[in-house]
Amino acid sequence: MGVQFLFYVGIGGAIGSISRAILAYFLSSQTLLATILANLGGALLIGCLSKLGENLSSGDIFRAFWIIGVCGGFTTFSTFGMDLFNLFQKDSWLTGCLYISANFFGTLLFIWIGYKGAGIIS
Fold first, then answer.
1. Could you tell me the pTM of the whole model?
2. In 30-44, which positions are buried (b, 16+ CB within 10 angstroms) versus exposed (e)?
3. Do the beta carbons of residue 62 and residue 56 sit within 8 Å?
4. What is the pLDDT of residues 3-45, one digit of tens each?
5. How far is CA 119 from the centre of its chain?
6. pLDDT tens across 100-121, in order?
7. What is the 3-state secondary structure of the chain?
8. Is residue 73 a contact partner of residue 17, using CB atoms and an 8 Å limit?
9. Would you say 44 and 113 are in contact if contact means Cβ atoms under 8 Å apart?
10. How far apart are the first and last CA of the chain?
11. How does pLDDT run across 43-57, given as a tens digit for each residue?
12. Dist. CA 10–CA 108, nearest whole Å
């Protein structure tokens, strides 16, 4: 892992984080929805990009910028954890369990959809 790799991770991460902040701003009254959309959108993009990047000669740089940087900066496990903690603190167990399911199973489903979808177009 060299300086160039870290540079691409940093630039991609900045783009992903700013995009996540914009999403959170526009959905500020719907924080759970914003987190789910970020995680599922990022999962779809990671699935697509993983498939599209499989045969690239510059695979490390592609992965550094897009998957680790952009998608890593956009998706948000820590916000998901804090949201879930707050739901459980309020004894909102059903909402919390649904929230876990939407994030966890939704993320796996959206990665699969992105990967398969990219396979159709590539």
1. 0.91
2. eebebbbebbbbbbb
3. yes
4. 999 999 999 999 999 999 999 999 999 999 999 999 999 999 9
5. 20
6. 999 999 999 999 999 999 988 8
7. CCHHHHHHHHHHHHHHHHHHHHHHHHCCCCHHHHHHHHHHHHHHHHHHHHHHCCCCCCHHHHHHHHHHHHHHHHCCHHHHHHHHHHHHHCCCHHHHHHHHHHHHHHHHHHHHHHHHHHHHHC
8. yes
9. yes
10. 28
11. 999 999 999 998 888
12. 25
Alpha-carbon span 48 to 67, nearest angstrom = 10
Number of CB atoms found within 10 A of residue 100's CB: 13
Give the Cα separation of 103 and 84 in Å (integer). Answer: 11
